Structures are given as structure tokens and as C-alpha cells.
Amino acid sequence: MDNTLVIYIRNEADIVAARKKGREIAQQLQFSLTNQARILTVVSELSRNIYRYAGCGHIEFVLVEQDRKKGIRIISVDQGCGIPDVEKAMQKGYSTSGSLGAGLPGVKTIMDEFELTSAPGSGTRVEAVKWQIR
After folding, report:
1. What's phi and psi for 113, nearest 5 deg?
2. Nearest to 76, CA basis, from 117, 110, 35
3. pLDDT score for 100
4. Residue whose C-alpha is closest to residue 64's, from 131, 113, 114
5. What is the CATH number of the domain that holds 121?
6. 44 φ, ψ (degrees, to nearest 5)
7. By CB count within 10 A, which of 2, 50, 65, 119 is most buried?
């Protein structure tokens, strides 16, 4: 794999494809089984959010290295209506769709780095990194 791979999310089959690619990359980077499951959870959550709230967008997988550590950066981008209240959306238990509301706060907890950028009318971008620490 090159350093970056993009999976476009337009339907549920694309969510499955993103999960499959996330699993392959996590295995390639030799993450523990626990961290592989965490990465798949993040890919599922972010790609499902794209499909559910924006209709379409993409997930980027980027292989990263820093200070002799290797990792994966997962970037979720959509051009949907945006998140009106990011602070509220990051509260555990908050949901606009009747779900458990563990999504974005869960992604932040699972990953080593997390950044969310969103505004009404301008879409949403989430970047999250998981480092493979040996």
C-alpha cells in the first residue's frame, strides 16, 4: 500500500469495504488483536456517520511514522450539513439519531490522537491516529 488509501462511502457496501481495508492495514502494521478491533470500531463509526448524516464522503487511511513509531491515521471527510454543536456532540450519551451516543466520544477515547472540525453547512472532518508502540 502507498502511504494513503481512500475509500468512498456512498452506501452500506462501502462501509463494509472500509472495514475490510482497515482490518488489512491494522494486520499489516501488526497491531494487537485488541487494537485491530479498536481500529475496526473507529472505521465503522466514522464511515457509518458519513452514510447516515451526510449521505456520502470518504475515509482516508494514511500510514504514518513519527519518532520510530508507526501508526495509522484515519480521516473521515464529508460535505454534509455539519455538526451544529461540536461540544455537545462530544458528550458521551448525546445522539441526534436515537443511538447510544457513544460514537464520536468513543472514537476519541479509543484512539491516541483525535481532532474534529465541523460547522453548520460546511461538512465534518475527523482525524484520528492509533500508534503501534513496540
Report:
1. -135, 145
2. 117
3. 41
4. 131
5. 3.30.565.10
6. -60, -50
7. 50
What amino acid occupies position 99? S
Stretch 24-32: mean pLDDT: 97
Phi, psi (degrees; rounded to nearest 5) at 133: -100, 125
User: The whole model's pTM is what?
Assistant: 0.91
Q: Please, are residues 19 and 2 in contact by the beta-carbon 8 Å criterion?
A: no
Counting the structural domains of the chain, the total is 1
Residue 130 pLDDT > 60, yes or no?
A: yes
Q: Which domain holds residue 25?
A: 4-132
Q: What does the buried/exposed string (b/e) look like for 64-82 if buried means 16 or more CB atoms within 10 Å of the residue's CB?
A: eeeeeebbbbbbbbbebbb
Q: Average of pLDDT values for 73-82?
A: 96
